[in-house]
Amino acid sequence: MKLFSERYGYTKPSDIIIREQITPEIQNAICSCYDRLIGWFHEYRTYEAEAKLDYIELEEYLWTNVLNKRIANFSKDGSYYIVATTYMESVSHEWYEKLNLIEITIQYLRNYDKKDYHRRVAVKFIETLNSEFERLHFAYRIINDEIVEINSKEEIQSIERALIEAPSNIRTHLSKALELYAQRPTGDFRNSIKESISAVEAWCREKTGAKDLGGALNNLGKNGINLHPMLKQTFEKLYAYTNQPTTGSRHALMDETEKYTPKAEEALFMLVLCSAFINYLNKKV
C-alpha cells in the first residue's frame, strides 16, 4: 500500500536525496568528469598527444588494478580499452563498486609518480564531482580523497515521518521546503529555510495560540509540553537566524553578491532539524 505522502502527491525525500544507488543522471555526470580528464591534463601539458597519453596510462592502471586484466590485452590494433566509463555504465557492477572506482582514480592521480600536475588534475576532478553530486542531490561527497555519506537514511526517514504524521498545514510547509530545496537547476534555499522554520512555528502556534514562534515556545509548558530550557533556547536562536537580514530567509531577497547566502547544506540542515523537532513534539503530545 502506498504511504500518505505518495497518495496525496507530496514530494518524497527518498526521491530527492539519492543514496545507495546511482541514477542515470548521476552516472552521466560521473562519466562526464572522466571525459574531461584529457582536457584537464592538457592544461598542464604542451601537446594534446601528451595529455591523451596521461589518460591512457590511467585507463591502463584501472585495467590492471580494477578489472585485474592482463596488460597484453589492454590495447589492440592501435586502440585501447576504456575502463572508466564502460565500468560506470555497466549494469553488472553495484553502485558502491562504481564509487570504489572513483576513489581508486583519485588515489592514482594523487600518487602518480609524484607529478605535481597530476595532483592538480585530481583537485579539478574532485571539485567537479562534488559540485555535480550537490547539484543532483547525491547523498555523498569526496572529503579528504574519500567518498563519505553526508545524508543518512535516518535523516531522510525523519523528513518522511514528519510529512506523513504532521497536520495538513504543517505538512504543506515541509513539502514546500523540500520542493524548493530540490528545485532545478538551482534550489531556492532561502525560501526552503523559511518554509522549514514556518512548519515548526505553525505547530507551536497551533498548540499555544501565540503570535510567533518565540512566544509559542515560551507557552508550550502551559500546554503540558515541557522542553528543556537549552532546547527551547536553541530553537529561539534558530528562529532568530532565519530572521536575520543577512540570511534573507524571512525577508526580501538580497543581491547574490552579499557576503552570506544560504546554500544547499543550510537548507537541508534546517529541513532535517525542523522535521526531527516536529516528530519530537508529536511524541511529547
Poorly predicted parts:
251-255
Mean pLDDT: 84
DSSP E strands, number: 4
Query: Beta-strand level of the residues, as a percent range?
Result: under 5%
**Head-to-tail CA distance between termini:** 28 Å
Q: What is the topology, as strand order, of the major beta sheet?
A: 1-2
Class derived from helix and strand content: mainly alpha
Q: What kind of sheet is the major sheet?
A: 2 strands, antiparallel
The share of residues in helices is 55-70%
What is the tally of helical segments? Answer: 14
CA gyration radius, whole angstroms = 24 Å
User: How would you describe the shape?
Assistant: elongated
Order of helices and strands: HHHHHEEHHHEEHHHHHH
Number of domains: 2
